[in-house]
Amino acid sequence: MTELGIQGFWQFVLGTVIVVLLPGPNSLFVLTTAAREGPERGWRAAWGIFTGDTLLMVATAYGAASLMVLFPLAFEAVKSLGAIYLGWIGVGLLRAGLLQWRHAPQQSNTTQAEVHTHSGALEQAPYWKALGLSLTNPKAILFFLAFFTQFVRVDAPSPALAYALLGLVVQTCSLAYLWMLIKAGVHLKSIFIRHPKLSAVGIVAVSLCFIGFAAHMMG
């Protein structure tokens, strides 16, 4: 991958897996759609998320590639801001994980109620609702820009191609994860409802990974 201007490819793959596994509104929507309405409609929701994320990554890659070529100093500044942003996410996740651990017995019923609330809000067109959910995430473009730019060299022969290949890795991992949610949606949901502390441990582990990424980027 180095000849294409991509550095630390396997670190990128590891980071991508961690990011994809991070719980969020997109995965929750696919999970609840599949659990309540079956795998077919679950896949419609999954393709809506896939479409929205693809559009965001294409827009992000195009802007980042242009910025890299035209304004290298500004590009380095964006990378620094990206490191701060990733650290901020990590700290927020750490606080959320610790809070969930502290109040785990009380949160079991709360989580159940929240899941039913989201499930009841499902509309008749899961694809379009999922697409809108993905495209209206204000943090997505900043996150993609902050994450992608760490693995593409400034002297890459074709920055757009490098970003496209990294985007392909992300979407492949994302589809695999959404497939897992669709196939085991009800089972996964019941595990986290019954064992909220297990969910808290996972959140804390992910937060430490984000903080580690941020520290490495600033080093």
Description:
The chain starts with 8 loop residues before the first helix and ends with a helix. Helix 1 runs parallel beside helix 8. Helices cover 84% and strands 0% of the residues. By secondary structure, the protein is mostly helical. The longest helix is centred in the first third of the chain and has 32 residues, at 39-70. It has helices spanning 9-21, 25-37, 39-70, 72-102, 104-120, 126-135, 140-148, 159-183, 185-194, 196-218. The chain has one domain.
Q: TL;DR of this structure?
A:
The chain is 84% helix and 0% strand.
Strand content: under 5%
The total strand number stands at 0
Number of helices, counting only DSSP H or I runs of 4 residues or more: 10
Average pLDDT, rounded to a whole number, is: 74
Structural category: mainly alpha
Which labels suit this protein?
about 220 residues; about 0% strand; about 85% helix; mainly alpha
